[in-house]
Amino acid sequence: MALEQRRAAALRVSAARGDDALALLDERWDDLVARQPLPNPLLSASWLRALARWGTGTPLVVVAEAGGDLVAGAAFELRGAGRRLRPITARWLGPFEQLVSPDALADPAWPDAPAALLATVFEHADALRLERTPAYGVAATAFAAALPWRRAIQTGVRWVASAEPPGRARHRRRFAAEVARAEGAGFAVTIRVAEGPDEVAAAVVRMFRVHRDRWRDWLGEEPRFATTHAHRAWNARAIGEMAALGRVRLAEVAVDGRVVASDLGFLHGTGAVAHTGAMRPTDALRGPGHLAWSVSTDALVAAGATAIDLGLGCGGPGSAKARYSPVEEPVCAIVAVGTSARQRWLDAVAGIRGTAAGVARAAWGRA
């Protein structure tokens, strides 16, 4: 038997839904996250269990094991179950606005394992619809190899930075000079990094205030972090759970005892995610948000991160992200089905629903 056949035979793929799915998000899952080329703390068991609390769908976790080791896994949720003429769709677990570079997981020694997960996913769902997925990540690569009935559309870019990019020392000196200038003008500047659960909990509350003051009147603010009571309560709990595992670094810059900038990052093994920043304009410091960003990312690197996912958004000249000389990577949306027959059925259902919607609109127009 060829090596590839023996490896395929050694794989055991299983899936679980609901509370049983969340039980698969354990220490083995976190160990698999740590084995990724860029470990994503927001794919860790703690964060995924927190995402499930939003209740936006039924959790579905699919894993592949070999010799008792977890070698691949993916966390989805099912939407559309129980609705007439509505296909059941598997999406990434959790609400869209709480996801940063969601992907499947694979042990680098088992590159074919993610493809083995796909058939099991389609035993529970008619289609997959995945947003904000790295275009060259585990999921996109596996789908391209195994699913002819799919579409992938680039929807943006994410930025990934190394731990110590060129020019970083120059920026540190500039920030130090700016703090010295402010202190020379009579301002008391305090810079601190919260790590432990208690200090993180207090710093998160202060960060909520700064974030809300900054974005209160901006209509384009996405309800993700501090906009509503529900988001503040969810984030406070989820961040606290991550802090209890030592995976949070939250930098604060205060002037005369008042926090003017905060920056939140998460850590898992050698990988990190720059999550959220907030700042208030102040006459004391130029660019307090950039300073908090610098302190936060330095703290992540000091804790062991060798690369930082800076997320979506501006990484061009003049941005805080540009100071880390990030690499641009495409992000895509993927829609996939398991068979050509299922593709035809979904096309038919979409046509029926589209016709019904057109009739309803016409009837409403005549009323």
Care to describe what's here?
The chain is an alpha+beta fold. The protein folds into two domains: 159 residues, Gcn5-related N-acetyltransferase (GNAT) (Aminopeptidase), CATH 3.40.630; 142 residues, Aminopeptidase. The chain has eleven helices and 13 strands. The N and C termini lie far apart (70 Å). The C terminus is likely disordered.
Could you list some keywords that capture this structure?
single chain; 367 residues; alpha+beta; Aminopeptidase; 13-stranded mixed β-sheet; 11 helices; 38% helix; elongated; disordered C terminus
For the termini, the CA-CA separation is: 70 Å
Give the full name of the CATH homologous superfamily of the largest domain.
Gcn5-related N-acetyltransferase (GNAT)
The coarse silhouette is: elongated
Spell the H/E element sequence. Answer: HEHHHEEEEHEHEHEHHEEEHEEH
- Domain count, please report it: 2
CATH A-level architecture of the largest domain: 3-Layer(aba) Sandwich
Helix share, percent: 25-40%
CATH topology of the largest domain: Aminopeptidase
Low-confidence region ranges? 349-367
Mean pLDDT: 86
**Major sheet details:** 13 strands, mixed
Structural class: alpha+beta
Radius of gyration: 23 Å
The level-1 CATH class of the largest domain: Alpha Beta
Number of helices, counting only DSSP H or I runs of 4 residues or more: 11
